[in-house]
Automatic annotation (TrEMBL):
InterPro entries: UGSC-like_dom. Residues 13-180 form the UGSC-like domain. This is UGSC-like domain-containing protein. Pfam families: UGSC. It comes from the Bacteria.
Amino acid sequence: MTVDVVADQASLEVVDPTADKSSSTGTALAPRLTTLNGKVLGLLSNSKPNADVALNAAAQKIRETFPEMEIRHYAGSIRFEAALLQQAISECDALIGATADCGACTSWLIHDGAQAEKGGVPQVTIVARGFERDTGTSAQVFGVPELQYVVVPRVFTALTAEQATEQVLPVVEEIIEKLTADPSSVAAGDGDGEVLEVAEDEVAREAQESYTFRGAGVAEVYEQFNDFFVEQDFGDGQPLIPPTRERVEELVAAQGRPRDEVILSIPPAHGPGTLEKIAVNAAMAGVKPRELPVVIAALKAIHDCPPPMNLSVLMSTGAFAPVVVVNGPIVKALGINDGRSPLGPGKNNVVGQRIGRAIGLALRNLGQWIPGKMDLDTIGTVRKNIQVIGENSDESPWEPYQVNRGFRPDDSTVTVVHTVGEWDLGSNHGTVPRRLASIAARTPTATQVGFMTSTLGGLEGNEDGLFYLLPPETAKRFAAAGMDKRSVQRYLLHNIRPRISDVIAPFHDFRDRGLVRPEWQWMFELSPEEQRSQTIQAFLDPSTINIIVAGHGTTKEFLFGTMTPPITGKVNAIA
């Protein structure tokens, strides 16, 4: 369909950048109960503070109306273990979950609620205000678009236990209604009767084939195009290049693949990423045909992030963002900056910037990685303007990073690291031993996920990591002293040693709630003086610490903290 925005002289037709909507209606809700008396009500607590308090308060209030109801508690993690979730579904007649405060934990509990509905068990999820869009979109993604939920005013983690109880009690009658009444007669509400039509507005918008803008001249229609795309939330806040049919056709034709081929599902909403739709978003960033394979390879690497972190890194309330490192012949072939200031602006970085922008636009328009929708980041980060850099293999004394990842030196690859922060270490002076000691001492060790806890089941301990960018001059000095990458990794592994008091500081509340794993309990049992005077290795094994050679000039080291292990994939370059 073509949309005429303004009728006048000059015209501009552009292709719609959003994902084609599925015709599937999803799974219907499980049949509702006629009564809760004599039934088993299960409470799905996802380990976040006060979620269990709110659930228990709601259940006790429900039992005042249904005194013969049995209550069972299921203490899981942000992603319920499959066996525990299946146990709850098999043992209970109805379930209630609480999402607490996080975009990723909201989506995972909606996933768990959807599994219950598919298993024939009615459920209701308690959602904090501000997470309704995430809830509605996640329900669509997980195949139960009518999934039932109620809304409370504030996130539970910001409250005391008493406040958590007080705010959940007013929605208890709504919970009962959603478990026992015909769903068609009950709208998703905010606890005060306001209807929230997020599914129609945010998820099920009918895609257009194209949009046409007309005006008095080229500048006017270009402005109309950008204003309209910003208003529709199709852009990233910066002026876009119009994705005309001609530009899109050029990108598609160069790949030698069918335009409607689904290359991958684009996270976090898992929208269908056809070649054509990826090309539309790349066109808006100014990507050239030979650069599109890097965009596709990076999207695949982001898609391949294993659960539960695949949702956490894109949907969390924390400031996480992907950074892309490119290796192999394609770095020079495309002109991706691997020399001075590869993370900076300007002419040298134009290729990396448009590739990174295309990745972000595809995540946005095909995966709904949009602030307030499926990206629930509290503050945000400039790293969400995705950075793409090359490793400086020409000046490196070591094997290139893709070889460390199991590829050949002549393979072109992308590596995605989901970052949690960045630091300029700048050791700069001293002998090799002093320089290494300086890098280790200045490396931040604040854990973001915490493999000490069971809040994200299934983590192996290498999710909290480090990704160093060492300038060639630093790498050469280490190599001249007989050190390869592995020996640098081992040194850092054993010499990044924070005080035990600093390591456990964020986890006292977790321990109080029984969420610290048994092997780490001993640290909490030390005296305060012992906790302050003793140190501990911050990371578990060398694979947690990754090193590339980047930049040019003086010995100023740089570091990203990482939320996941690096994910590397091959680029299928075109001639």
